Structure prediction request, 224 residues.
Amino acid sequence: MDSFDILKALKKLSYLKNERDPLWWPNSGKFEVIIGAILTQQTKWEKVEKSLNNLKENNLLDLQTLAKTDHREIAPLIKPSGFYNTKAKRIKNLCKNILQEFGSFENFQENVQREWLLAQKGIGEETADSILCYACYKEEMVVDSYTQRILNELGYEFETYTQTANWLKEGINENLSKIYELYQKEMPINQIYARFHGKIVEYAKEQIRGKKVNIEPLKNAIGE
Ligand code: 39A
Prediction:
């Protein structure tokens, strides 16, 4: 089995059929994805949405504004998504550094490297890849805790984040013509990775039972 079998099974189970954003992450390609990627650390997406709305309503959800706003002003607005003092500092620091290094979101989107993101305070591999994949349209596949749990339930144990991401990417790259057939069109690789991760998250959220994910519907769909 490879990761293409998982993608095919998730597609058969109809995840992401009526998604508003073609890449699944709301407002993909926009600055706010960067902030969502930081806010979603150690919390549920629904809480992130509340924080993002608070920032929007207070006209703060913008690179230049966040870079010059005191973290103590940001913190109460992002309280719904937890760890708000730490996250407020991370957000302000990252926005300041993006402006200093790239001058604009558009230049950042085009030119940022994974290593630059990983060197920022509080940005690990999952957050960096979320930003690269969903804000910058780069060919990176996000490995989050849902992905880890699903792969573990399917019997896969990888030693590192990179090994997991590479296994997921390889199964896609080795089966591109079958994927185009499945979608009945050619698709950019970054979009395939983005939607694949989205399907994994939506499956896990629907099938989560305590700390485990019910893997049976996925196993059955793989076996069909
Ligand atoms: N866990 C999650 C999500 N669940 C999500 N959506 C639903 C839309 N996003 C964008 C990120 N992480």
Summary: The chain has two domains: 3-18+141-223, 32-135.
